[in-house]
Amino acid sequence: MPTNINEIAWGELEHAFGSAADLPDLLRALRSGASSARRKALRQLEDKVNHQGLATPAAVAVAPFLVELVEEASTKEHPALLALVADLMVGGSHRRYLAGGFEPPSEGAGRLLYERCAGVCRRAIALLDDRSAAVRAAAAHCLAFIPGAADETCAPVRARARREKNASALASLLLALGLIGRYRSSKEDRELLAEQLAAGKPLVQLAAAASLLCIDAAEPPPEAERTLLDALAGAVEAPSSFPWNGGDLVGIAAAALVEWGSSRSDLELLSRLLAATRDSFANVGVASSLIDRVFDGEEQVDRMRTLAELGALQRSVLERIAGLPAAAGEGVYFALQRHGIHGLPADLRRFLGIDEQGPLDREIGGEPAWKRLRDLRAGRLALDAWLGLLKAELGPAEVVSLCRDAGSGGYALGRRWPWFHVAPEHEQRDFDDLALLLADTLAELADSRSLLDSASALLARPDYAATARALWLQGRGSDAEPDERVDRLAYMAMAYPRTMRDVIAWLPPERRWALVKPLGLGHVVRSSGIQLGGAWHYIDLCAGEEAARQVVSTVAAWDPKADVPHERAVEVLASMGAAARPAVEAALASGETRRRDVLERAHEAL
To answer: What is the pTM of this model?
Structure first.
């Protein structure tokens, strides 16, 4: 490769699944002589750097290598590479900009990513005359999202469109002309588009109609609106290689109509579109396009909006989206998130007041409690300030109710914002961080009676946020009265060692072993190493002789040839000190232990 791939510190970059250290091998595989290897590498690369329509930090480093591949005549995967470059150019998904066009960021990583991808422009212009119709279609699609080169690309795209015979490639060229004309505030292609609308094949007519609405929203020909409304029935089909919107033509028609209706604040048309596509996959595209349009120019993913910040049109659109089927609601999650709106259907309905609200919706210092917690987790609000606000406005029982609401999944506060994808262990860490934050809140502001009164309700609610069950114990720790309900809460949360180690350490020594003992001492051998389970996370906090005997008997039964957590065993026994010595010495003297080596090391440490 002309650029030295080894000069980039890939291990310091991140893609959707963690370290980007594996990306150089995938980039090299794109030059493989085997088509199956190239396609597999491209799928994996796209999943990592452009996951679920969001470009990850590593995309900026990857972009130049993709452009170099497109520029090489020997490259075999031009359509797919051009499609990926086009998506990265706009920050992850061109689908958001089907009708309104793309405006590049003025600075930051988004600007750099756009500039690096836009380097493909000259090569894409040349590929408009490629022998392959799929390549020509992909080249036109890519050029449609380089607004800074609109004056340079309009003539070659127009010239190719006038002589193009392939319907798929022509439709792509016409869609590109619509966006390029929008960037240039030009209607000079209106006649060409009108000709294709009148005489072209169905796919070409749909593309011409969408572009006419794009460049001439004030006075589009009536045939354009009718063509797009008819297309919502899904009668028009595109070949698998069609690069726009993944071949979803209903979504393209809907996006054009959404843009047109929103520009006129035509809520009636927008509502008809949602209703017309309610039972089709295109409903997601309609809703997403509608969201992007009504929040146009107001993106703010660094913080979330409150209900008071929304305009009447925005609120009305969100209320209609909140009534979509569950699957469609989940599908618009990322569109809502992009604009600082709660994305999960239940959270959106609650936010809008359609469903019953709760403690998180109460205003604390003039803003909803969920907003205060988001600011706290993002570092925009200090813990002392948060505690001060609650102390001034809530009583102990109200604090418990608020923490219970947050710990039980309300407004997905356990997820970082903005959320696109994190490894499971990182997501668990985010949930644990919320648990610890709420535990600090309870420790400062709740009382034992309020905490214990909440225990039964928590035990009866099997929600995913099991960390919440730990909070009520940590909230008062050794001050809490010995109570079976509290012990059961703690036991149910033992799968969260990062949170629960503090809980166990807070308990009086005589109560610790009773909670830890039932967990057992197990481990699992994985390719990444040995994963500890159960009591291994806590038993070093239990210094009694019974706990020591449990560790020793477990070690003594280990297979001498198997991988075992010997370092952890030695560490635990050493931490138990004098309480462990009799059990270790007895096992060594008996001669029956299968892992004498581990116990001898533990004895030396003692």
So the answer is: 0.59
